[in-house]
Amino acid sequence: MSEKIKNVTAAVLCGGKSSRMGFDKAFLKDNEQYLLVQTVQKLQTLFTQVVLISNTKTKFSDQKEFCGIPVLEDLFSEKGPIGGISTALKQAQTEYVFIMACDMPLPDVNLIGKMYRGLNLEQVFVCSYRKKPEPLFAFYHKSCLPVFEKHIEKGELRPRSTFSFLKVGIYELNDEEKKSIVNLNTPKDIQKWNQTNNKQ
């Protein structure tokens, strides 16, 4: 895609507790570089607006690598990914937001561009692998926000629980495209990812 996408804000969710990893996944590194910074740089080739959604802005303030990357503080504290998505929808100036998680090391901008071109008035356009939707690699329209807020009020915090109340489109991933939704939750996941990518 030659021209950047202007009517979508890309938002990377960085507010999780990372309890299984043992340290904050926002600071995962690859060859001494933060994976999150690499992800932002990839997204910036596609989107004019890229932001981080975090439980606290201050965790990035001492890291010079993150200087210049906008950070939005989560407006729905302790509400998990649905709170992060809602924060992005509430604060974005664009019609849609593209959401992904900070622990996905291999986002394919060509795939994201293909998904964007497949958007056709859906409120949610989510990728799926073997019929299992991945709500943290998806486009969400501003009109999703009231539904999300209602679910947060009721304590229903799984983004997928909102899908039956929204117009949802599905992009079914092939085996190659599945790499984009690989996420790193544990030290074992990192080890496996390094081996798969021939890194020592």
Describe the structure.
The protein is an alpha/beta fold and about 200 residues long. The chain has a single domain, classed as Spore Coat Polysaccharide Biosynthesis Protein SpsA, Chain A. About 25% of the residues lie in helices and about 25% in strands. The chain has a seven-stranded mixed sheet, sandwiched between helices. The longest helix is centred in the middle third of the chain and has 12 residues, at about 80-90. It is globular and about 45 Å long. It starts with a strand and ends with a helix.
What's the helix and strand layout?
Elements: E1 5-13, E2 29-30, E3 33-34, H1 35-44, E4 47-54, E5 71-73, H2 80-91, E6 96-101, H3 109-118, E7 124-129, E8 132-141, H4 145-154, E9 168-172, H5 187-196
Parallel strand pairs: 1-4, 1-6, 4-5, 7-9
Antiparallel strand pairs: 2-3, 6-8, 7-8
Quickly list its features.
Molybde_CF_guanTrfase, single chain, globular, nucleotide-binding, metal ion binding, 7-stranded mixed sheet, 5 helices, transferase
What is the tally of helical segments? Answer: 5
Radius of gyration (Å): 16 Å
Structural class: alpha/beta
What's the structural domain tally? 1
According to CATH, the homologous superfamily is Spore Coat Polysaccharide Biosynthesis Protein SpsA, Chain A
Strand order across the largest sheet: 5-4-1-6-8-7-9
What's the overall average pLDDT, rounded?
Answer: 87
